[in-house]
Description:
- This protein has 586 residues and is an alpha/beta fold.
- The chain has helices at 3-21, 46-52, 56-66, 89-103, 136-150, 166-177, 180-193, 204-221, 223-237, 241-264, 277-280, 283-292, 332-346, 359-371, 403-421, 427-447, 459-462, 470-487, 502-512, 514-523, 529-547, 557-577, and strands at residues 32-33, 41-44, 73-79, 82-87, 116-120, 154-161, 271-274, 297-299, 305-308, 320-322, 349-355, 379-383, 386-387, 455-456.
- It binds one RNA strand of 78 nucleotides through helix 2, helix 6, helix 13, helix 14 and helix 15.
Amino acid sequence: MTAMDDFQNEIRAKVSAALKDMGADGTGFVIEASTMEGVDMAVPCFPLAKAMRKAPQAIADELATRIQPSGMISKVTSVNGFLNFNIDPEFLIKSTLDEIVEKGGEFAYLPKTGKRVNVEHTSTNPTGPIHVGRARNPIIGDTLARCLLRCGNEVTTEYYVNDVGKQVVVLTWGVNNVTDEEAAKNSEEHMKEIGQNEKERDKTDHKLVAKYRVANKKLETDPAVQTEISEMMRRFEQGDSEVIDTVRHTAEIMLDGLKETLGNINVSLDRYTWESGYIADGSARAIVEDLKKSEYAGQTDDGAWFVDLKDFGVQGKNTKFTFTRSDGTTLYTTRDLAYHTDKFTRSDRVIDVLGEDQKLGSKQLCSALEILGSDKQPEPLFYAFVSLPEGKMSTRRGVVVYMDDLIDEAVARAYDEIKSRRQDMPEEKMRDIAKVIGVAAIRFNIVRVQPEKQFVFKWEDALNFDGNSGPYIQYVHARACSTLRKAGTFKHDTDASKFREECEINLIKTLAKYEETIRLAGDEKRIHMLPAYAHELASSFNQFYANVSILNSEDLRDARLTLVECTKTVLADVLDCLGMGAPEEM
RNA sequence: GGGCUCGUGGCUUAGCCAGGAUAUAGCGCUGGCCUUCUAAGCCAGACGCCUCGGGUUCGAAUCCCGACGGGCCCGCCA
């Protein structure tokens, strides 16, 4: 419970009582954060006008005279039909600072819910390196998981590895049949195509994808290769463990490269679940049998099974959702049903972070789960794809920016920046800090935009270290650390009378908003609120820092240092929640 | 063709779901500030028919309908 919550509850009680006195008992009203300068909360009186048969301004005026400032309410005014309230700054300052001093980094950890929340994210096909077109997935998923943890949940993050199907079979064939020379030649051509002069990097995902590209080319032109791959596919479908194991092994090697990339942007997942597992354990089969019994089930002339979803809000010319091939084998979607059924047994809430191309598939999945009698549904979180100014990202057309290249570029840029301003720092330390800053710039740049909005990747934005950026937030943290370092020891002073400057009160109000921001970002999956909050907090601190003297402020020194420390504490947690490091100097 | 989604200063973006006061912030632009604790900073300024047209409402960027423009999807692929 934050100071603002208490404040709001008090307003609610007082306004309700006043309305009762005015003979309008039980009339509904809302309390909202005011947009007006110098006002904290407001009750718009327009909706009351009709029920009370009185002008909004008259209602506001009367309420204002009936409600006396007391408790947390320091001021009540009536302006333009709004009943405005101000929080008692003494109360706000004391309670906010005391709470941060007492709880430290766990200031905004909400009470335990006892709920197990599963966040599935990334889950890209293990057939090539992660490119920026898909970069939103791990960053959104990882940030959301960190928010949900702070919302009191037990969180598990999970990657669903697609080690079934033609793509991974082609990859496997390539890994086992394409020579290193062929791969090297292809790699060279590819790098030329995407406009880079360097050699393709020595990393398993980049090495394997060259063989995948060669395999795909051969598949198009060489009938012998077509036959070999078809044979592998056939054996795979029949459950031939030799083929299945080989494919899985290949996917594992590819995944090692992907994990390395993810690790570099501070994303690590708790669990990797293999699609092939749902064939092996028979659970996909069981889904097929259950669905066949449903009243919505049917069969095509060729014998493929489907459920008709036209009663489930699925629109269009074809409402049939196919769950077996005509030969009876399962499809991706069938295995996905088994996968979700499995997730439900080990989670109370299941969240899927998905590209917007999965919207229809996700809806079909939900409908099929309903048919299966599932009492739970996954909550999808969709994001629009990242494109380049020249258009949609496509490895084949050579229009692609790899995540690994973006990371290198951002780190190099951060290194130049730090080198130009810190001659005193040892080389190794500069390298370490550059990495932390570069990665923060990337993550911040991606989470700051609402997931459903299209995102055009621009190098100048990704490498922007000013203003609304990751490094801006980190810079403020470093400033606070530096100030505290210079200060040495001091005594916590949360005496509200010591904070008289507008910039101080504003900063404390911003600190008080952190808990609510975490709740919105986590429970309501609005993670883009978090970078906006981080910027607001950092900006408030910079204003405070520029306006008042801290170390030479005599009897206010301890109080101001306490505020610096509290800000540092909250900033460190916001940065962590965003998956960004909090360097103590930069 | 059908469905889903986005459209806010030159560019990027918050607010929209739960309609209210002067539409949020950043980049870029113009001007000022390092003899004070990190100038990746601070201060001041210019820049908006909130895509367009209707409707609902005391009140619409926000809700409804329609148009236009961008994106995504409509496999016995994964």
